[in-house]
Amino acid sequence: MVVGIDTELASLAIDNDPVNQPDQPVFEVKEISGKGKGLIARCDILQGARILCEKPLLIAHPMPLFSLEQHLAARLKELSKESQRQFLTLHNNFPGKFPFSHTFKSNALPCGPGSSTGGVYPTICRINHSCIPNSHNNWDSKSGQETIYAIKPIKTGEEITIPYNNGGTREVRQASLKQSFDFDCGCPGCSRSPSAIRESDVRRKMIQKLDDAIGDPSRMQGRPADSLKDCQSLLEVLEEEFDGFAGVLVARLYYDAFQISIAHGDQARASAFARRSYESRVICEGEDSPETQRMKLLALKPATHSSAGAFSQKWKTAITMVPKDLGGAAFQEWLWQRVSQHSCTLSDTDEDSNSSDEEADY
After folding, report:
1. Is the dihedral of CA 195, 197, 198, 204 positive or negative?
2. Phi/psi of residue 110, each to 5°?
3. Are 225 and 342 contacting, i.e. CB atoms less than 8 angstroms apart?
4. What are the pLDDT tens digits along the chain (362 aa)?
């Protein structure tokens, strides 16, 4: 372990938890023109502040509408009158037959990335969508709660927003939101000038293209420097598209860079990338989030990851080789040095070669 790194990581935790400041409410539920109810900031909210956490009123797994209607009706009977009222006053995008099911589908958030289980919440489900959100919603599996954190500073009177979809060009986003939620998005990202929308669409296509390339395991194995270069390029595009506040997308990107580095034995850079992923997770999900804690552990002990050295030892370094005397641009240059310093293709002989020459570079 690098002496002092755990203390440094601990100091990064953001002590700005409005939930523990009951005398300073940070939002109010208000009617918003064209959107129904939404959450409005009652005071300035700092980046990384926890805005809200809630346990779900109801949870359900995928099932046919008729079965879901029966399931929800039974669960609703078990709730208090106040909880029943909270559910029944949520917006229903598709009124008519199966009212409970359509209310649930109109409001449910997945209980974790990629989870098929959904939950509805009395207040969090009032938060409206934006393609350029200022907050991040996350399921905390440890506490069984959905949390909302500010991923950028939010001004008094500003609406609190989260994303309802997975991105894409404006046309793709609009179609997805219309089909799933029956509304036309008028967020800042969709209300840009025609020329700005075209530029945004180019960036969105590039984000998807780079993400697909980074996720290619054969490319990560045989051309890791290209994969790492794509991570650097994706970071730049994300920062531009989301005005410097790409939130959890940046955390995921740094984790990808971590995996590329550790799979080829580079513990030094893997540790630095995990630390940056941890820093981003603290902002988006808080210090206690299981994923935040996992990134913290990997920053301290990158070699514990299951893919450590799985592809080669071509880039072998020790965690103690993270430079301590570099800051700002100099550290950034060191961090991405693999992009320009190493061959993009690893041969079989490279994988078995001695790494002393590479280590001497540092």
Report:
1. positive
2. -65, 140
3. yes
4. 333 445 455 444 444 454 445 556 799 999 998 888 999 999 999 999 999 999 999 999 999 999 999 999 999 999 999 999 999 999 898 888 999 999 999 999 999 888 889 999 999 999 999 999 999 999 998 899 999 999 999 999 999 999 998 889 999 999 999 988 888 999 999 999 999 999 999 999 999 999 999 999 999 999 999 999 999 999 999 999 999 999 999 999 999 999 999 999 999 999 999 999 999 999 999 999 999 999 999 999 999 999 999 999 999 999 999 888 777 888 888 999 877 655 444 433 343 333 333 333 33
Question: Rounded to the nearest 10 degrees, how much is the dihedral formed by the CA atoms of 271, 277, 282, 284?
Answer: -170
Closest of 358, 346, 361 to residue 310, by C-alpha: 346
Amino acid in position 248: V
Distance from C-alpha of 290 to C-alpha of 292, rounded to nearest angstrom: 5
The residue type at 88: L
Domains of the chain: residue spans and CATH: 5-12+193-360 (no CATH), 23-181 (2.170.270.10)
- Give phi and psi for 268, each to the nearest 5: -60, -55
For 35, 170, 221, 225, the CA distances from 143, given in Å and listed in that order, are: 31, 35, 37, 39
d(C-alpha 62, C-alpha 80), whole Å: 25
What are the angstrom distances between the C-alpha of 280 and each of 261, 310, 311, 347?
A: 19, 26, 27, 35
Question: Residue ranges of the alpha helices (H) in the chain?
Answer: 5-10, 65-78, 81-88, 99-107, 170-181, 194-214, 217-222, 224-241, 248-263, 267-285, 290-300, 329-335, 337-341, 348-352, 356-360
Residue 70, amino acid: Q
What is the Cα gyration radius of the chain?
23
